[in-house]
Amino acid sequence: MTNEYLFLSDEHRAMVGAYRPDGISVEVSDIDKTPLWIISYSVANKNEDGANKLSEVHATVMQYSPLVLSCESSEYYNCILFPLVNELERKLRKLLYLAASISDNENAKENVKQLEEKDFSEIFDLLFIDQNFILDMKKRINAEVKSQFNGRSKYTKDEIKLYLDSVEEHALWDTILLKEDVPTLRSRFRDVQTYRNDVMHAHNIDKEQFEKARYLFDKVNKELDSAIDRLLQKKKIEQLKNTPTVSAAIKSTMQAQELSTISDIVQSLALIFNQKEDISGLLSVTHDLVEVVRTASANQIPSTLERLQQQVQDITRLLTDNLPHRGTDKQGL
Hints:
Number of helices: 14
Order of helices and strands: EHEEHEHHHHHHHHHHHH
Distance between the termini: 86 Å
Shape: flat
Largest sheet: 4 strands, antiparallel
Strand content: 5-15%
C-alpha cells in the first residue's frame, strides 16, 4: 500500500526528506530537467492497520501542500465504506417506497415515484427541504429596502429569529414517517450526504473521517432496518384489517389467554386440596391438554378449549366429593 506526493519545488525538501516514520518505507525520486520531485511512503500489508499508518503520514506531508499522486490509504477506506453507502441508499429507497405506499398523502406517493432516477442529493432535497419554506425566506431576504419584515419597518436580530421560528416547515420525511424513524439520518442528513459524496467521488479521507463515516453509516443502516421492519408490519396489518383472518387471530389470542387462566385454576385447586393421590391422573391429562391447546391451530382451539373447561369442572367436582374425608366444611369452599 503506497501514498505518493509530487512537490513542485525544493522549498520543503529538507523537512519532508527528513521525515521517516517507523515501519514505513520511503522513496524519493527526481524528475529529470525539472525542479519536480516525488516522495512515496509504503507499507507491506494492505489492511486497516496499514491504512491507518499511511493516514498519519498523509496528514503530516499535506502540511507542505504537495499534489497527491496516489493515496491508497484513502482508497482502502473508500473500499470499506462503499458497500455501506450502497446499503444505505438501497434501504432508504425501500423505506420511502413503503412509507409512501402506506401513507394517505397522495402528493408523497407521487414525489417518491422512480427514486432510482434521482441522485442522492435530489432525494435528500426531496425529503428534508421544504420548498415553500425556502420561498418564504427568499421573499424576506430579497425584499426591498423600504419593505417591512413581519409587519415591522425596524427590527432586531432576535425578532428575526423569532419570526423564523414561527414559520412552519413541512418536510416530506416528517409527513410520511414518524419522528423516531431513523433519527440519526433525520438529524444528520448533511453529514451523511458529505461522507457519501467523499466515498462516491473518491475523495481522499483520513483515519478520523473514515471512522466517523463508518460509525454513522452503520448506525443509520441499523435504524433503517428497524424502520423498514415497522412499516412492513404496519403494511401487513393494513392488508389484514377487517378480514376473517384478523378476526380469527384476535379470537385465538383471547382464547389462549383464557387457557392460561384455566391452567392456573387447575394447578391452584390441586395445591389447595392436596389430593394428588386421587386426581394425579386427571391432573396429568389436563396439563397435557393445556400444552396441546397452546400449540393448536386457530380452528382447533374452540373444541380443545371446551374439553379443557370440562376437565376443570371434573376436577372441581372430584375435589368437592373428597371434602368430607378431610373434615372440611363443604360450604366453606
